[in-house]
Amino acid sequence: MSNELIGVFPLWKPKGMTSFSAVREVGKRFGTKKAGHTGTLDPDVEGVLPVCLGRATKIVEYLTAEKKTYIGEVTLGFSTTTEDSSGELVDKKEIKEDITEDSAKAVLRQLEGVIKQTPPMYSAVKIKGKKLYEYAREGITIDRPSREITIYELELLDHPKKNQDGTVSFSFRAVCSKGTYIRTLTVAIGEKLGYPAHMSHLIREASGAFHRENCYTLETLDEYRLQDKQQDLLISPEEALSSFPKITVTDHDAMRVMQGAILTIPEEVKSMDETIWGLYNQQGECLALYKKDEKRADSMKPEKMIRTVHQR
Known about the structure:
GO terms for molecular function: RNA binding; tRNA pseudouridine(55) synthase activity. Belongs to the pseudouridine synthase TruB family. Type 1 subfamily. The chain has helices at 19-30, 101-110, 132-137, 182-193, 218-226, 237-240, 251-258, 267-270, and strands spanning 6-13, 35-37, 46-54, 67-76, 78-80, 89-92, 113-117, 126-127, 130-131, 147-156, 161-162, 168-177, 197-207, 210-211, 246-248, 263-264, 276-280, 286-292, 299-305. The protein is α+β, with helices and mostly antiparallel strands.
């Protein structure tokens, strides 16, 4: 195989930087414009943002994890246009009662499971070819379809505390499906407690197989780059795709895979529920993702080519 750049950089995105800027900065440090992230983080949010580089950009959509973990903070007392602390005031209500730990826990329990969410106007969801935040900036509010998301866990992390401005805040840990808006979740928490609310802080702790402890800051990347060792920080496509079942093919079939051939599904994986497999050569390199061929019995076809005969 060639020395062409291919890998995933597990970035810890800093607060105050857009995901687009973060990806551009990582790509610049690796000397490539071919870079893409696996799930947008708002500028005010810090956390796990895997960046695919070179030919690894082909697998971006497969690393958009089904499960993500967040540490968030909800503040009760007022809501905003953006559903976080950066927006303009929408509604305000004085908090006269005590928000207890028990009442907060009870509300969090109610929001676990499959729930419906309507994407906020300040989001990157596209409707009629235009992102919602673009409509919002023009002062236009449009109907957005609600969608089902899953909150696997919602845990209270501290006792609700009264702030100097009369608001009440508490932190929580959420394990949720992709497509979940934590901002919108905090608004729902407030509604169930009887108050307008917004998200006052958020960190993404994990995105699928990528966790906080495995990530690097841009500063760390710069230190490695000074020693020309930035490649040491990359995760291989093989490691990034390790959640997909693995099929190792013969040298003969490896060539056929890189040509995009349709293959027979091996007996040992026919009974698997999975419909997508990673196909590897004898050297342990992932050549492609294959899926069941609906038109041909016991056959599989390319889902995504990672290495081809022209990119060995």
